[in-house]
Predict the structure.
Amino acid sequence: MKNSECALCGTEISSGNDSKEHVIPNAIGGRKKVSGFICRECNNKSGDNWEVELASQLNPLSLFFSISRDRGEVPSQRFGTTSGNKVVLNVDGTMDLAKPVYSESPHEAGVNIKITARSMKEANRMLNGVKRKYPQVNLEELVSLSEKRSIYPSDMINFNLSFGGELAGRSIVKSALALVVEAGVSAKECEHAREYLTNQDGEACFGYFYEKDLVLNRPEGIPFHCVYVKGHSKSGQILGYVEYFGVQRMVMSLSSQFTGEDFENIYAINPITGAALGLKVDLQLTPNEIQDSYDYKKIPDGAIKEALAQVIPTGMELSFQKERDRVLNGAILYAFENCGAKEGQVLTDEHLRKVTSLLFEKIEPFLLHQLTISKEVKQYRNCTASLH
């Protein structure tokens, strides 16, 4: 390992403190690592602050696209719906109630109790609570009346995305700087990036750019991540471009005093599969264009919504496929386990009729849910994004 210094604190990096930093954070699906970039202590500090904020902002998209990580899983998250309800979305595409529902209503014969739980275990705990409150209740009868079935929201989930800010911005710039170092250029050459990353009051050196598509061979429908850097000795610039989920698109000036040899470096990935992508970026921007991006002048009306429109259908299709497969596999298992046939027994006509009935029983909620979803709902009407 060649001698190098931490890009953030200047500590000499050795085999003992080299952090092997992810270029794109692991939290949003990054795989590629860079050695000799920052020390372990700086990696931990920036991870606990910058990366955590970035991952939090992008977590709705990580869940929506069911991304895969190098390690760990995307955490579940609670969302509101258009009718004011709350649901929890999981990375496998399933949804849970935000909390169990318990209600009592009096009637002539006593009290009507309704329980909706997220699991049979939770339902049993609630039923035991009912037994403690009403000792005369036949608990075994209540348990026998309980059933496990799928319930789908009758309205849409609100995805309110917010990108940027001081902490997430530093994570974005750090990713570009990591790729510069991997290209063999010292982090010291990137004075704008280092000032921003090492000085709490440092001026942000990134902005949003949607005026034109800088990715020349954008893959249709893929919510990719991309980090691209290039150094140009004649202009003295080291520029960077970072795009996350095909939606968050940023340009930056890492240096305006570069005197080394021209270079470029790129890392792009499909976070759903983890596969690397061979993208081409045309980053020929003037200092004025870069400054305009810093001042939010490169975001035409409707540009962010259009970026979302390019990738949201992919997430919807993936969600449909996962839920379809989950429902079918569960229904088949349930039908054959409860049709009355013993293991290894040849199925009779009566068994087959029972299997058909049980299959439809389990599949029916999914089919009805699909029939009630309009094409407009499957789009992105309730997915909004803001930049800061």
Notes: The first helix runs from residue 40 to 64. The chain has a mean pLDDT of 90. The CA atoms of residues 183 and 256 lie 18 Å apart.
